[in-house]
Amino acid sequence: xxxxxxxxxxxxxxxxxxxxxxxxxxxxxxxxxxxxxxxxxxxxxxxxxxxxxxxxxxxxxxxxxxxxxxxxxxxxxxxxxxxxxxxxxxxxxxxxxxxxxxxxxxxxxxxxxxxxxxxxxxxxxxxxxxxxxxxxxxxxxxxxxxxxxxxxxxxxxxxxxxxxxxxxxxxxxxxxxxxxxxxxxxxxxxxxxxxxxxxxxxxxxxxxxxxxxxxxxxxxxxxxxxxxxxxxxxxxxxxxxxxxxxxxxxxxxxxxxxxxxxxxxxxxxxxxxxxxxxxxxxxxxxxxxxxxxxxxxxxxxxxxxxxxxxxxxxxxxxxxxxxxxxxxxxxxxxxxxxxxxxxxxxxxxxxxxxxxxxxxxxxxxxxxxxxxxxxxxxxxxxxxxxxxxxxxxxxxxxxxxxxxxxxxxxxxxxxxxxxxxxxxxxxxxxxxxxxxxxxxxxxxxxxxxxxxxxxxxxxxxxxxxxxxxxxxxxxxxxxxxxxxxxxxxxxxxxxxxxxxxxxxxxxxxxxxxxxxxxxxxxxxxxxxxxxxxxxxxxxxxxxxxxxxxxxxxxxxxxxxxxxxxxxxxxxxxxxxxxxxxxxxxxxxxxxxxxxxxxxxxxxxxxxxxxxxxxxxxxxxxxxxxxxxxx
Length: 630
Prior knowledge:
By secondary structure, the protein is an alpha/beta fold. It has 21 helices and 26 strands. The protein is elongated and about 90 Å long.
Protein backbone atom coordinates (compact mmCIF):
# COMPACT_ATOMS: atom_id res chain seq x y z
CA UNK A 1 0.00 0.00 0.00
CA UNK A 2 1.36 3.41 -1.00
CA UNK A 3 0.16 6.25 1.19
CA UNK A 4 -0.42 9.85 0.22
CA UNK A 5 -1.96 13.01 1.64
CA UNK A 6 -3.15 16.25 0.06
CA UNK A 7 -1.27 19.38 1.09
CA UNK A 8 -4.62 21.06 1.84
CA UNK A 9 -5.04 18.68 4.78
CA UNK A 10 -2.48 20.35 7.06
CA UNK A 11 -1.26 23.80 8.03
CA UNK A 12 1.91 25.67 7.12
CA UNK A 13 3.56 26.73 3.89
CA UNK A 14 4.42 24.17 1.26
CA UNK A 15 7.91 23.49 2.61
CA UNK A 16 6.61 22.93 6.16
CA UNK A 17 3.88 20.65 4.85
CA UNK A 18 6.31 18.52 2.86
CA UNK A 19 8.62 18.14 5.86
CA UNK A 20 5.74 17.03 8.09
CA UNK A 21 4.33 14.64 5.49
CA UNK A 22 7.72 13.04 4.91
CA UNK A 23 8.43 12.71 8.65
CA UNK A 24 5.07 10.97 9.18
CA UNK A 25 6.05 8.20 6.76
CA UNK A 26 3.92 8.97 3.70
CA UNK A 27 5.09 7.85 0.27
CA UNK A 28 3.49 10.63 -1.71
CA UNK A 29 1.67 13.94 -1.69
CA UNK A 30 -1.17 15.53 -3.61
CA UNK A 31 -0.24 19.08 -4.55
CA UNK A 32 -3.28 21.28 -4.00
CA UNK A 33 -3.12 24.11 -6.50
CA UNK A 34 -3.48 26.94 -3.95
CA UNK A 35 -0.46 25.63 -2.02
CA UNK A 36 1.51 25.67 -5.25
CA UNK A 37 0.36 29.14 -6.31
CA UNK A 38 1.09 30.78 -2.94
CA UNK A 39 4.61 29.34 -2.64
CA UNK A 40 7.42 31.46 -4.04
CA UNK A 41 9.30 28.89 -6.11
CA UNK A 42 9.13 27.60 -9.66
CA UNK A 43 7.31 24.35 -10.48
CA UNK A 44 10.67 22.73 -11.18
CA UNK A 45 12.04 23.81 -7.78
CA UNK A 46 8.91 22.56 -6.01
CA UNK A 47 9.18 19.22 -7.77
CA UNK A 48 12.77 18.95 -6.58
CA UNK A 49 11.67 19.81 -3.00
CA UNK A 50 9.14 17.00 -3.09
CA UNK A 51 11.67 14.45 -4.31
CA UNK A 52 14.31 15.66 -1.83
CA UNK A 53 11.76 14.96 0.91
CA UNK A 54 11.56 11.35 -0.30
CA UNK A 55 8.08 11.81 -1.72
CA UNK A 56 6.36 11.47 -5.09
CA UNK A 57 3.62 13.76 -6.38
CA UNK A 58 0.66 11.43 -6.64
CA UNK A 59 -1.78 14.03 -7.94
CA UNK A 60 -2.07 17.66 -9.04
CA UNK A 61 -5.48 19.07 -8.20
CA UNK A 62 -8.09 20.39 -8.67
CA UNK A 63 -9.02 21.32 -12.25
CA UNK A 64 -12.55 22.75 -12.15
CA UNK A 65 -15.44 23.49 -14.49
CA UNK A 66 -14.25 21.49 -17.46
CA UNK A 67 -16.82 19.14 -18.98
CA UNK A 68 -20.03 20.14 -20.75
CA UNK A 69 -19.23 23.82 -21.22
CA UNK A 70 -20.70 25.87 -24.10
CA UNK A 71 -18.46 27.99 -26.29
CA UNK A 72 -16.40 30.08 -25.70
CA UNK A 73 -15.98 28.55 -22.22
CA UNK A 74 -15.24 25.14 -23.70
CA UNK A 75 -12.24 26.37 -25.68
CA UNK A 76 -10.96 28.28 -22.67
CA UNK A 77 -11.23 25.12 -20.56
CA UNK A 78 -8.99 23.22 -22.96
CA UNK A 79 -6.52 26.13 -23.02
CA UNK A 80 -6.46 26.11 -19.22
CA UNK A 81 -5.84 22.37 -19.25
CA UNK A 82 -2.84 22.77 -21.53
CA UNK A 83 -1.36 25.35 -19.15
CA UNK A 84 -1.83 22.94 -16.23
CA UNK A 85 -0.14 20.19 -18.24
CA UNK A 86 2.85 22.53 -18.65
CA UNK A 87 3.03 23.03 -14.88
CA UNK A 88 2.66 19.30 -14.20
CA UNK A 89 5.53 18.41 -16.50
CA UNK A 90 7.78 20.85 -14.68
CA UNK A 91 6.62 19.52 -11.30
CA UNK A 92 7.33 15.98 -12.42
CA UNK A 93 3.87 14.48 -11.99
CA UNK A 94 1.55 12.79 -14.46
CA UNK A 95 -1.91 12.66 -12.86
CA UNK A 96 -4.41 15.52 -12.72
CA UNK A 97 -7.79 15.56 -10.98
CA UNK A 98 -10.79 17.01 -12.79
CA UNK A 99 -13.78 17.44 -10.49
CA UNK A 100 -17.31 17.45 -11.85
CA UNK A 101 -18.57 20.78 -13.12
CA UNK A 102 -20.45 23.11 -10.75
CA UNK A 103 -20.76 26.06 -13.16
CA UNK A 104 -24.23 27.45 -13.70
CA UNK A 105 -23.57 27.56 -17.46
CA UNK A 106 -22.54 23.89 -17.68
CA UNK A 107 -24.62 21.75 -20.01
CA UNK A 108 -25.76 18.29 -19.00
CA UNK A 109 -25.42 15.10 -20.97
CA UNK A 110 -23.32 11.99 -20.46
CA UNK A 111 -22.24 11.84 -24.11
CA UNK A 112 -21.29 15.53 -24.21
CA UNK A 113 -19.10 15.11 -21.15
CA UNK A 114 -17.59 11.89 -22.51
CA UNK A 115 -16.68 13.63 -25.77
CA UNK A 116 -14.93 16.41 -23.87
CA UNK A 117 -12.91 13.87 -21.88
CA UNK A 118 -12.04 11.91 -25.02
CA UNK A 119 -10.56 15.07 -26.54
CA UNK A 120 -8.77 15.90 -23.29
CA UNK A 121 -7.38 12.37 -23.19
CA UNK A 122 -5.83 12.86 -26.62
CA UNK A 123 -4.10 16.04 -25.48
CA UNK A 124 -2.96 14.43 -22.22
CA UNK A 125 -1.54 11.38 -24.02
CA UNK A 126 0.78 13.61 -26.06
CA UNK A 127 2.27 14.86 -22.79
CA UNK A 128 2.44 11.51 -20.98
CA UNK A 129 -0.27 12.70 -18.59
CA UNK A 130 -3.33 10.95 -17.18
CA UNK A 131 -6.56 12.63 -16.12
CA UNK A 132 -8.82 11.35 -13.36
CA UNK A 133 -12.49 12.36 -13.12
CA UNK A 134 -14.16 12.77 -9.74
CA UNK A 135 -17.86 13.26 -9.04
CA UNK A 136 -18.37 16.03 -6.48
CA UNK A 137 -21.29 15.38 -4.16
CA UNK A 138 -22.62 18.82 -5.12
CA UNK A 139 -21.79 18.66 -8.85
CA UNK A 140 -24.31 20.46 -11.08
CA UNK A 141 -25.01 17.49 -13.35
CA UNK A 142 -22.64 14.75 -12.10
CA UNK A 143 -22.65 14.08 -8.35
CA UNK A 144 -22.48 10.28 -8.24
CA UNK A 145 -19.42 8.10 -8.95
CA UNK A 146 -21.64 5.78 -11.02
CA UNK A 147 -22.34 8.59 -13.50
CA UNK A 148 -18.69 9.63 -13.50
CA UNK A 149 -17.73 6.03 -14.28
CA UNK A 150 -20.23 5.95 -17.16
CA UNK A 151 -18.59 9.07 -18.61
CA UNK A 152 -15.13 7.50 -18.28
CA UNK A 153 -16.40 4.35 -20.01
CA UNK A 154 -17.92 6.30 -22.91
CA UNK A 155 -14.81 8.47 -23.26
CA UNK A 156 -12.99 5.17 -23.83
CA UNK A 157 -9.49 6.58 -23.60
CA UNK A 158 -6.57 4.98 -21.72
CA UNK A 159 -5.49 8.36 -20.32
CA UNK A 160 -8.90 9.05 -18.80
CA UNK A 161 -9.84 7.23 -15.60
CA UNK A 162 -11.94 7.48 -12.47
CA UNK A 163 -11.05 9.06 -9.12
CA UNK A 164 -13.01 7.79 -6.13
CA UNK A 165 -13.41 9.87 -2.97
CA UNK A 166 -14.99 8.25 0.05
CA UNK A 167 -16.58 11.50 1.23
CA UNK A 168 -18.44 12.18 -2.03
CA UNK A 169 -19.79 8.63 -2.13
CA UNK A 170 -20.60 8.12 1.53
CA UNK A 171 -21.99 11.58 2.31
CA UNK A 172 -24.62 10.98 -0.38
CA UNK A 173 -25.22 7.46 0.96
CA UNK A 174 -24.51 5.85 -2.41
CA UNK A 175 -24.28 2.06 -2.34
CA UNK A 176 -20.58 1.26 -2.12
CA UNK A 177 -21.10 -2.15 -3.69
CA UNK A 178 -21.53 -0.36 -7.01
CA UNK A 179 -17.74 0.18 -6.89
CA UNK A 180 -16.98 -3.54 -6.97
CA UNK A 181 -17.75 -3.90 -10.69
CA UNK A 182 -15.28 -1.18 -11.73
CA UNK A 183 -11.96 -2.56 -13.06
CA UNK A 184 -9.20 -1.60 -10.64
CA UNK A 185 -6.87 -0.38 -13.39
CA UNK A 186 -9.45 2.22 -14.44
CA UNK A 187 -9.36 3.80 -10.98
CA UNK A 188 -6.47 6.25 -11.09
CA UNK A 189 -6.38 7.21 -7.40
CA UNK A 190 -8.51 6.74 -4.28
CA UNK A 191 -9.01 9.67 -1.91
CA UNK A 192 -10.18 9.09 1.64
CA UNK A 193 -11.90 11.19 4.26
CA UNK A 194 -14.32 10.61 7.09
CA UNK A 195 -16.85 13.06 8.55
CA UNK A 196 -19.31 13.32 11.42
CA UNK A 197 -22.95 12.60 10.75
CA UNK A 198 -24.21 16.19 10.74
CA UNK A 199 -27.33 17.23 8.88
CA UNK A 200 -26.00 20.16 6.86
CA UNK A 201 -25.21 21.26 3.32
CA UNK A 202 -22.72 18.78 1.85
CA UNK A 203 -20.43 21.46 0.46
CA UNK A 204 -20.15 23.14 3.86
CA UNK A 205 -19.68 19.80 5.62
CA UNK A 206 -16.96 18.86 3.14
CA UNK A 207 -15.08 22.15 3.38
CA UNK A 208 -15.02 22.41 7.17
CA UNK A 209 -15.68 19.12 8.95
CA UNK A 210 -13.92 16.28 7.16
CA UNK A 211 -11.60 14.22 9.32
CA UNK A 212 -9.32 11.22 9.22
CA UNK A 213 -10.77 7.75 8.57
CA UNK A 214 -11.91 6.42 11.94
CA UNK A 215 -12.46 9.84 13.49
CA UNK A 216 -15.93 10.35 12.00
CA UNK A 217 -19.10 8.37 11.42
CA UNK A 218 -18.96 7.41 7.73
CA UNK A 219 -18.55 3.71 6.80
CA UNK A 220 -15.09 4.19 5.28
CA UNK A 221 -14.15 0.56 5.92
CA UNK A 222 -17.07 -0.61 3.76
CA UNK A 223 -16.01 1.83 1.06
CA UNK A 224 -12.44 0.49 1.06
CA UNK A 225 -13.63 -3.13 1.06
CA UNK A 226 -15.43 -2.36 -2.19
CA UNK A 227 -12.34 -0.65 -3.63
CA UNK A 228 -10.12 -3.61 -2.72
CA UNK A 229 -12.53 -5.95 -4.51
CA UNK A 230 -11.81 -4.12 -7.79
CA UNK A 231 -8.14 -5.11 -7.68
CA UNK A 232 -7.02 -1.49 -7.29
CA UNK A 233 -3.39 -1.28 -6.15
CA UNK A 234 -2.62 2.43 -6.47
CA UNK A 235 -2.08 5.05 -3.76
CA UNK A 236 -4.49 5.67 -0.92
CA UNK A 237 -4.57 9.41 -0.36
CA UNK A 238 -6.10 11.57 2.34
CA UNK A 239 -7.92 14.73 1.30
CA UNK A 240 -9.13 16.42 4.48
CA UNK A 241 -10.70 19.87 4.68
CA UNK A 242 -10.96 20.71 8.38
CA UNK A 243 -10.72 24.09 10.10
CA UNK A 244 -9.04 22.66 13.20
CA UNK A 245 -6.50 20.70 11.15
CA UNK A 246 -5.58 23.81 9.18
CA UNK A 247 -4.78 25.56 12.46
CA UNK A 248 -3.06 22.63 14.15
CA UNK A 249 0.42 21.17 14.17
CA UNK A 250 1.31 19.88 10.68
CA UNK A 251 3.51 17.22 12.25
CA UNK A 252 0.79 15.84 14.53
CA UNK A 253 -1.95 15.99 11.89
CA UNK A 254 0.32 14.20 9.40
CA UNK A 255 1.09 11.50 11.97
CA UNK A 256 -2.62 11.07 12.65
CA UNK A 257 -3.25 10.75 8.93
CA UNK A 258 -0.64 8.06 8.43
CA UNK A 259 -1.94 6.18 11.49
CA UNK A 260 -5.49 6.36 10.16
CA UNK A 261 -4.51 4.76 6.83
CA UNK A 262 -2.62 1.90 8.47
CA UNK A 263 -5.50 1.24 10.84
CA UNK A 264 -8.07 1.50 8.04
CA UNK A 265 -6.36 -1.05 5.85
CA UNK A 266 -5.82 -3.35 8.83
CA UNK A 267 -9.58 -3.26 9.45
CA UNK A 268 -10.24 -3.86 5.77
CA UNK A 269 -7.84 -6.82 5.70
CA UNK A 270 -9.69 -8.34 8.67
CA UNK A 271 -13.02 -8.08 6.85
CA UNK A 272 -11.92 -8.61 3.23
CA UNK A 273 -9.51 -11.54 2.76
CA UNK A 274 -8.38 -10.27 -0.65
CA UNK A 275 -6.92 -7.19 1.05
CA UNK A 276 -4.39 -9.10 3.15
CA UNK A 277 -1.55 -8.49 0.70
CA UNK A 278 -2.08 -4.72 0.59
CA UNK A 279 -0.02 -3.89 3.68
CA UNK A 280 2.52 -5.32 6.10
CA UNK A 281 0.89 -7.47 8.72
CA UNK A 282 0.68 -5.93 12.17
CA UNK A 283 -0.71 -7.46 15.37
CA UNK A 284 -4.46 -7.33 15.91
CA UNK A 285 -6.02 -4.61 18.02
CA UNK A 286 -5.41 -5.36 21.68
CA UNK A 287 -8.21 -6.43 23.96
CA UNK A 288 -8.00 -4.40 27.16
CA UNK A 289 -9.15 -6.40 30.16
CA UNK A 290 -9.12 -3.51 32.59
CA UNK A 291 -6.88 -1.03 34.38
CA UNK A 292 -4.08 -2.73 36.34
CA UNK A 293 -2.86 0.44 38.06
CA UNK A 294 -2.87 4.23 38.04
CA UNK A 295 0.37 5.96 38.99
CA UNK A 296 0.56 9.46 40.43
CA UNK A 297 3.69 11.58 40.16
CA UNK A 298 3.93 13.73 43.26
CA UNK A 299 6.21 15.28 45.87
CA UNK A 300 6.59 14.04 49.40
CA UNK A 301 4.41 16.71 51.01
CA UNK A 302 1.71 16.31 48.38
CA UNK A 303 1.99 12.51 48.61
CA UNK A 304 1.15 12.63 52.31
CA UNK A 305 -2.03 14.58 51.57
CA UNK A 306 -3.00 12.26 48.72
CA UNK A 307 -2.27 9.16 50.80
CA UNK A 308 -4.50 10.51 53.56
CA UNK A 309 -7.24 11.13 51.04
CA UNK A 310 -6.92 7.59 49.66
CA UNK A 311 -7.15 6.16 53.18
CA UNK A 312 -10.42 8.00 53.71
CA UNK A 313 -11.66 6.24 50.56
CA UNK A 314 -10.72 2.90 52.12
CA UNK A 315 -7.33 2.27 50.45
CA UNK A 316 -4.45 0.70 52.34
CA UNK A 317 -0.73 0.97 51.67
CA UNK A 318 0.08 -2.67 50.89
CA UNK A 319 3.53 -2.61 49.28
CA UNK A 320 6.57 -0.49 48.50
CA UNK A 321 8.80 -0.68 45.44
CA UNK A 322 12.13 -2.38 46.11
CA UNK A 323 14.31 0.30 44.50
CA UNK A 324 12.12 3.37 43.98
CA UNK A 325 10.14 5.73 46.16
CA UNK A 326 6.84 4.24 45.01
CA UNK A 327 4.06 3.06 47.34
CA UNK A 328 1.19 0.81 46.31
CA UNK A 329 -2.28 1.55 47.71
CA UNK A 330 -5.01 -1.01 47.10
CA UNK A 331 -8.74 -1.48 47.60
CA UNK A 332 -10.64 -4.32 45.94
CA UNK A 333 -9.17 -4.64 42.44
CA UNK A 334 -7.93 -1.03 42.34
CA UNK A 335 -4.18 -0.36 42.49
CA UNK A 336 -2.91 3.21 42.98
CA UNK A 337 0.81 4.02 42.96
CA UNK A 338 2.27 7.16 44.53
CA UNK A 339 5.66 7.97 43.01
CA UNK A 340 7.83 10.48 44.89
CA UNK A 341 11.09 9.77 43.06
CA UNK A 342 13.47 12.74 42.86
CA UNK A 343 14.71 11.77 39.41
CA UNK A 344 13.45 10.10 36.25
CA UNK A 345 10.33 10.63 34.19
CA UNK A 346 7.86 10.77 37.10
CA UNK A 347 9.83 13.54 38.79
CA UNK A 348 10.00 15.51 35.53
CA UNK A 349 6.25 15.12 35.14
CA UNK A 350 5.68 16.38 38.69
CA UNK A 351 7.99 19.35 38.12
CA UNK A 352 5.93 20.43 35.08
CA UNK A 353 2.38 19.41 35.97
CA UNK A 354 2.32 19.09 39.76
CA UNK A 355 0.63 16.11 41.38
CA UNK A 356 -1.04 14.21 38.56
CA UNK A 357 -2.12 10.75 37.44
CA UNK A 358 0.60 10.64 34.82
CA UNK A 359 0.59 6.90 34.02
CA UNK A 360 -2.02 4.23 33.33
CA UNK A 361 -1.31 0.51 33.09
CA UNK A 362 -3.76 -1.58 31.10
CA UNK A 363 -4.05 -5.33 31.40
CA UNK A 364 -4.18 -6.66 27.83
CA UNK A 365 -4.23 -10.10 26.26
CA UNK A 366 -0.63 -9.75 25.01
CA UNK A 367 1.58 -6.87 26.19
CA UNK A 368 4.34 -7.39 23.62
CA UNK A 369 1.80 -7.51 20.80
CA UNK A 370 0.10 -4.34 22.08
CA UNK A 371 3.42 -2.52 22.07
CA UNK A 372 4.28 -3.78 18.58
CA UNK A 373 0.94 -2.62 17.16
CA UNK A 374 1.20 0.76 18.87
CA UNK A 375 4.67 1.30 17.42
CA UNK A 376 3.49 0.26 13.95
CA UNK A 377 0.80 2.92 14.25
CA UNK A 378 3.32 5.63 15.09
CA UNK A 379 3.02 5.70 18.89
CA UNK A 380 6.16 6.77 20.73
CA UNK A 381 7.62 3.95 22.87
CA UNK A 382 8.92 4.70 26.36
CA UNK A 383 11.53 2.88 28.39
CA UNK A 384 13.70 3.81 31.35
CA UNK A 385 16.32 1.92 33.31
CA UNK A 386 15.21 -0.62 35.93
CA UNK A 387 17.22 -2.23 38.71
CA UNK A 388 18.63 -5.74 38.18
CA UNK A 389 15.97 -8.40 38.58
CA UNK A 390 13.08 -5.98 38.13
CA UNK A 391 10.60 -6.11 35.28
CA UNK A 392 10.54 -3.84 32.25
CA UNK A 393 6.90 -3.04 31.55
CA UNK A 394 6.19 -2.13 27.89
CA UNK A 395 4.99 1.46 27.56
CA UNK A 396 4.15 4.22 25.09
CA UNK A 397 3.56 7.94 25.42
CA UNK A 398 -0.09 8.89 25.73
CA UNK A 399 -2.33 11.89 26.33
CA UNK A 400 -0.46 14.97 27.53
CA UNK A 401 2.87 13.18 27.23
CA UNK A 402 1.90 10.77 30.03
CA UNK A 403 2.55 7.03 29.96
CA UNK A 404 0.44 4.06 28.94
CA UNK A 405 1.83 0.74 30.21
CA UNK A 406 0.84 -2.74 29.05
CA UNK A 407 0.76 -5.83 31.26
CA UNK A 408 -0.60 -9.35 30.69
CA UNK A 409 -1.14 -12.72 32.35
CA UNK A 410 0.82 -14.75 29.79
CA UNK A 411 4.32 -13.44 30.61
CA UNK A 412 6.42 -12.70 33.67
CA UNK A 413 4.66 -9.33 33.83
CA UNK A 414 1.84 -11.03 35.74
CA UNK A 415 4.21 -11.23 38.73
CA UNK A 416 5.02 -7.51 38.87
CA UNK A 417 3.61 -7.03 42.38
CA UNK A 418 5.71 -9.89 43.75
CA UNK A 419 8.89 -9.17 41.76
CA UNK A 420 9.13 -5.38 42.08
CA UNK A 421 7.41 -4.74 45.43
CA UNK A 422 7.80 -5.69 49.08
CA UNK A 423 4.71 -6.05 51.32
CA UNK A 424 3.80 -3.36 53.86
CA UNK A 425 1.58 -3.47 56.94
CA UNK A 426 -0.74 -0.44 57.05
CA UNK A 427 -2.49 -0.26 60.41
CA UNK A 428 -3.58 3.36 59.99
CA UNK A 429 -6.14 2.84 57.24
CA UNK A 430 -9.89 3.12 57.99
CA UNK A 431 -12.34 0.43 56.96
CA UNK A 432 -12.69 -0.76 53.39
CA UNK A 433 -15.42 1.25 51.65
CA UNK A 434 -16.47 -1.44 49.16
CA UNK A 435 -14.75 -0.06 46.06
CA UNK A 436 -14.21 -2.88 43.58
CA UNK A 437 -12.52 -1.67 40.38
CA UNK A 438 -11.81 1.31 38.15
CA UNK A 439 -14.96 1.85 36.11
CA UNK A 440 -13.50 4.53 33.87
CA UNK A 441 -10.79 7.13 33.47
CA UNK A 442 -11.62 10.69 32.42
CA UNK A 443 -8.99 12.52 30.39
CA UNK A 444 -9.29 16.23 29.74
CA UNK A 445 -7.70 17.85 26.70
CA UNK A 446 -8.04 20.77 24.33
CA UNK A 447 -11.08 20.33 22.07
CA UNK A 448 -8.90 20.21 18.95
CA UNK A 449 -6.96 17.26 20.41
CA UNK A 450 -10.02 15.07 20.82
CA UNK A 451 -10.13 13.56 17.30
CA UNK A 452 -6.43 12.71 17.51
CA UNK A 453 -6.67 10.81 20.79
CA UNK A 454 -9.90 9.15 19.70
CA UNK A 455 -8.01 7.75 16.72
CA UNK A 456 -5.11 6.77 19.00
CA UNK A 457 -7.30 4.54 21.19
CA UNK A 458 -9.51 3.24 18.39
CA UNK A 459 -6.53 2.13 16.30
CA UNK A 460 -4.59 0.38 19.08
CA UNK A 461 -7.37 -1.24 21.10
CA UNK A 462 -10.44 -3.33 20.34
CA UNK A 463 -12.92 -0.66 21.40
CA UNK A 464 -15.93 1.22 20.07
CA UNK A 465 -16.76 4.90 20.40
CA UNK A 466 -19.92 6.55 21.65
CA UNK A 467 -21.50 9.53 19.86
CA UNK A 468 -19.96 12.91 20.56
CA UNK A 469 -21.99 14.94 23.06
CA UNK A 470 -21.81 18.44 24.48
CA UNK A 471 -21.47 18.85 28.25
CA UNK A 472 -22.84 22.17 29.47
CA UNK A 473 -20.51 24.05 31.79
CA UNK A 474 -21.83 27.42 33.03
CA UNK A 475 -18.87 29.02 31.22
CA UNK A 476 -19.17 27.15 27.92
CA UNK A 477 -19.41 23.77 26.24
CA UNK A 478 -17.12 20.78 26.72
CA UNK A 479 -17.15 18.16 23.98
CA UNK A 480 -17.16 14.62 25.32
CA UNK A 481 -16.69 11.21 23.72
CA UNK A 482 -16.06 7.75 25.14
CA UNK A 483 -14.07 4.76 23.93
CA UNK A 484 -14.99 1.49 25.60
CA UNK A 485 -14.55 -2.25 25.27
CA UNK A 486 -17.61 -4.35 24.57
CA UNK A 487 -17.59 -5.86 28.07
CA UNK A 488 -17.01 -2.51 29.79
CA UNK A 489 -13.70 -3.61 31.31
CA UNK A 490 -11.97 -0.65 29.69
CA UNK A 491 -13.59 2.77 29.49
CA UNK A 492 -12.04 6.17 28.85
CA UNK A 493 -14.03 9.37 28.65
CA UNK A 494 -12.33 12.17 26.73
CA UNK A 495 -13.42 15.71 27.41
CA UNK A 496 -12.39 18.49 25.04
CA UNK A 497 -12.31 21.97 26.53
CA UNK A 498 -12.84 24.98 24.25
CA UNK A 499 -11.99 27.73 26.75
CA UNK A 500 -10.17 28.00 30.05
CA UNK A 501 -13.18 29.37 31.94
CA UNK A 502 -14.82 25.95 31.95
CA UNK A 503 -13.84 23.58 34.74
CA UNK A 504 -12.08 21.36 32.19
CA UNK A 505 -10.26 24.33 30.66
CA UNK A 506 -9.21 25.57 34.11
CA UNK A 507 -7.76 22.13 34.86
CA UNK A 508 -5.71 22.12 31.64
CA UNK A 509 -4.41 25.62 32.33
CA UNK A 510 -3.42 24.79 35.90
CA UNK A 511 -1.76 21.51 34.87
CA UNK A 512 0.01 23.00 31.83
CA UNK A 513 -1.46 20.45 29.48
CA UNK A 514 -3.89 17.59 28.95
CA UNK A 515 -4.13 14.96 31.67
CA UNK A 516 -6.36 12.62 33.63
CA UNK A 517 -8.86 14.78 35.50
CA UNK A 518 -10.77 12.17 37.41
CA UNK A 519 -10.94 8.49 38.26
CA UNK A 520 -14.25 6.68 38.64
CA UNK A 521 -14.35 3.79 41.11
CA UNK A 522 -17.15 1.21 41.03
CA UNK A 523 -19.05 -0.19 43.99
CA UNK A 524 -21.73 -2.85 44.20
CA UNK A 525 -23.75 -0.87 46.79
CA UNK A 526 -23.52 2.91 46.61
CA UNK A 527 -25.44 3.45 49.84
CA UNK A 528 -23.30 1.06 51.86
CA UNK A 529 -20.18 2.69 50.40
CA UNK A 530 -21.51 6.15 51.26
CA UNK A 531 -22.06 5.06 54.86
CA UNK A 532 -18.57 3.54 55.09
CA UNK A 533 -17.00 6.67 53.60
CA UNK A 534 -18.88 8.86 56.06
CA UNK A 535 -17.54 6.76 58.91
CA UNK A 536 -14.03 7.24 57.51
CA UNK A 537 -14.46 11.02 57.57
CA UNK A 538 -15.23 11.50 53.87
CA UNK A 539 -17.00 14.77 52.98
CA UNK A 540 -18.71 14.45 49.58
CA UNK A 541 -19.20 17.19 47.03
CA UNK A 542 -22.32 19.05 48.14
CA UNK A 543 -25.23 18.90 45.69
CA UNK A 544 -28.05 21.52 45.93
CA UNK A 545 -31.36 20.37 47.38
CA UNK A 546 -33.15 21.71 44.29
CA UNK A 547 -31.51 18.96 42.27
CA UNK A 548 -33.22 16.25 44.33
CA UNK A 549 -36.63 17.85 44.09
CA UNK A 550 -36.26 17.81 40.31
CA UNK A 551 -34.93 14.22 40.15
CA UNK A 552 -37.75 12.97 42.35
CA UNK A 553 -40.34 14.54 40.05
CA UNK A 554 -38.57 13.72 36.77
CA UNK A 555 -38.14 10.01 37.47
CA UNK A 556 -41.16 9.54 39.72
CA UNK A 557 -38.97 8.36 42.61
CA UNK A 558 -40.37 7.25 45.93
CA UNK A 559 -39.84 10.17 48.34
CA UNK A 560 -37.98 7.97 50.83
CA UNK A 561 -35.59 6.85 48.09
CA UNK A 562 -35.01 10.47 47.02
CA UNK A 563 -34.28 11.28 50.66
CA UNK A 564 -31.53 8.61 50.72
CA UNK A 565 -29.95 10.16 47.63
CA UNK A 566 -30.19 13.63 49.19
CA UNK A 567 -28.71 12.48 52.49
CA UNK A 568 -25.51 11.23 50.85
CA UNK A 569 -25.26 13.78 47.97
CA UNK A 570 -25.68 10.97 45.43
CA UNK A 571 -26.58 11.91 41.84
CA UNK A 572 -29.03 9.69 39.97
CA UNK A 573 -29.77 8.79 36.35
CA UNK A 574 -31.84 6.14 34.64
CA UNK A 575 -32.31 4.85 31.10
CA UNK A 576 -34.19 1.99 29.46
CA UNK A 577 -31.58 -0.50 30.69
CA UNK A 578 -30.93 0.44 34.28
CA UNK A 579 -29.90 2.95 36.91
CA UNK A 580 -26.74 4.93 37.64
CA UNK A 581 -25.59 6.42 40.95
CA UNK A 582 -22.73 8.91 41.33
CA UNK A 583 -20.96 10.23 44.39
CA UNK A 584 -18.15 12.76 43.99
CA UNK A 585 -15.23 13.85 46.11
CA UNK A 586 -14.44 17.52 46.47
CA UNK A 587 -11.76 18.93 44.16
CA UNK A 588 -8.28 17.71 45.01
CA UNK A 589 -5.09 19.41 43.73
CA UNK A 590 -6.30 22.10 41.30
CA UNK A 591 -9.13 20.35 39.55
CA UNK A 592 -8.58 16.61 40.05
CA UNK A 593 -11.36 14.60 41.69
CA UNK A 594 -12.67 11.10 42.32
CA UNK A 595 -16.03 9.65 41.37
CA UNK A 596 -17.68 6.67 43.04
CA UNK A 597 -20.48 5.00 41.11
CA UNK A 598 -22.82 2.06 40.89
CA UNK A 599 -24.33 0.67 37.69
CA UNK A 600 -27.52 -1.34 37.96
CA UNK A 601 -29.20 -3.63 35.41
CA UNK A 602 -27.10 -2.89 32.36
CA UNK A 603 -26.82 0.91 32.41
CA UNK A 604 -24.03 1.75 29.90
CA UNK A 605 -23.89 5.55 30.07
CA UNK A 606 -21.87 7.96 32.22
CA UNK A 607 -24.48 10.15 33.86
CA UNK A 608 -24.13 12.95 31.30
CA UNK A 609 -27.43 14.63 32.36
CA UNK A 610 -25.88 15.15 35.81
CA UNK A 611 -22.70 16.81 34.55
CA UNK A 612 -24.00 20.43 34.68
CA UNK A 613 -25.01 20.00 38.33
CA UNK A 614 -21.72 18.37 39.25
CA UNK A 615 -19.70 21.06 37.47
CA UNK A 616 -21.63 23.89 39.12
CA UNK A 617 -21.07 22.32 42.55
CA UNK A 618 -17.35 21.89 41.85
CA UNK A 619 -17.03 25.50 40.72
CA UNK A 620 -18.64 26.65 43.94
CA UNK A 621 -16.08 24.54 45.80
CA UNK A 622 -13.18 26.05 43.84
CA UNK A 623 -14.34 29.68 43.75
CA UNK A 624 -12.79 30.72 47.07
CA UNK A 625 -9.42 29.77 45.52
CA UNK A 626 -9.89 31.98 42.46
CA UNK A 627 -11.85 29.89 39.94
CA UNK A 628 -13.62 32.39 37.64
CA UNK A 629 -17.39 32.32 37.81
CA UNK A 630 -19.53 31.77 34.72
